[in-house]
Structure formats: C-alpha cells, structure tokens
Specification:
It holds the Pfam family Response_reg. About 35% of the residues lie in helices and about 20% in strands. The chain has about 140 residues and is α/β, with parallel strands linked by helices. It has a single domain, classed as Response regulator (Rossmann fold, 3-Layer(aba) Sandwich), CATH 3.40.50.2300. The strands form two sheets. It has a five-stranded parallel β-sheet with strand order 2-1-3-6-7, sandwiched between helices. Strands 4-5 form a two-stranded antiparallel sheet.
C-alpha cells in the first residue's frame, strides 16, 4: 500500500457537512453555528440508517457524528462511512470528554474528535488540515 495523496485545505475552502446527532436542539444549534461560520450544512440525521441515506444522497465532505445515537454507535457509523468509495472525513463528537473514549477514538477511522461545546468551523478545519497533512498508509485517498 502506498501513501495516499493529500490535498491542502485553506481557511476559506468550501466545506459541505452532514450532522448526525439524536438530539434535535443540539443538531439545530450546531447547524446554525456552522452555517453562520461559512460551512454549508447539507442535512441532519438522527440515526445510523438516516445518516447513510443522506450521505449517499448528499455526498458531504465531512460528517460530524455523535458517539451515542440512542442504541446505535457513532463508532460503527464512522467505520461504515470510511468503507465507502470516496469516504468523507468523519469527525466524532460528544458531550463527554475525549479522555473517556481515547482508545476507541484512536482506533476509529475518524479524523478526530470534538467536544460538542468546541464544535466550530475553525475546529473542524483544523482537524481536516491535520488529517490531510498526516501521511496515510491505508490506501484511502482523503478528500
């Protein structure tokens, strides 16, 4: 397997996002914030199945995924999304601390983790920039 190609991301690159969270007020808040900060939120989903449907219909660049989707796991969704042709950048999020999930996050295909209170355009762009500048040896070309 070779090193995947990387693409530089600028501060003003257009990003298209899907937000996956089971809590409607949180989803609305994140959507409103990101849109004010220049990220186009293509859709929101509250379940694994709905997220997959919307991903295939909308083809976002980045998917923000809550770790807890009721009885479903955000980690499972991240793995599923990373297995598709032309996978999106997946960023995991939670109201809990990153330390609570450190090993699971590191083992996941997600490009990073954000506390829900830290979600912002800048934080998302920083994670994407870091991920794109990190050499990948899994053969997957990151968008």
């Amino acid at each position: 397997m070779g090193v995947a190609q990387t693409v530089a991301v600028g501060c003003h690159e257009d990003l298209r996002c899907l937000v996956v969270d089971g809590c409607d007020p949180v989803t609305r808040s994140i959507r409103d914030l990101l849109e004010r900060e220049g990220i186009e939120v293509l859709g929101v989903a509250s379940s694994f199945a709905e997220a997959l449907r919307q991903f295939h219909d909308l083809r976002p660049d980045v998917v923000l995924v809550d770790l807890c989707l009721g009885a479903e796991s955000g980690f499972d969704l991240a793995r599923k999304l990373s297995s598709v042709r032309e996978p999106p950048m997946v960023i995991l999020m939670s109201t809990r601390r990153q330390d609570d999930y450190e090993e699971l996050i590191a083992a996941s295909p997600a490009v990073g983790f954000l506390s829900k209170i830290a979600v912002s355009s800048g934080a998302i762009r920083n994670l994407i920039t870091t991920a794109r500048n990190r050499p990948h040896t899994d053969g997957v070309v990151r968008r």
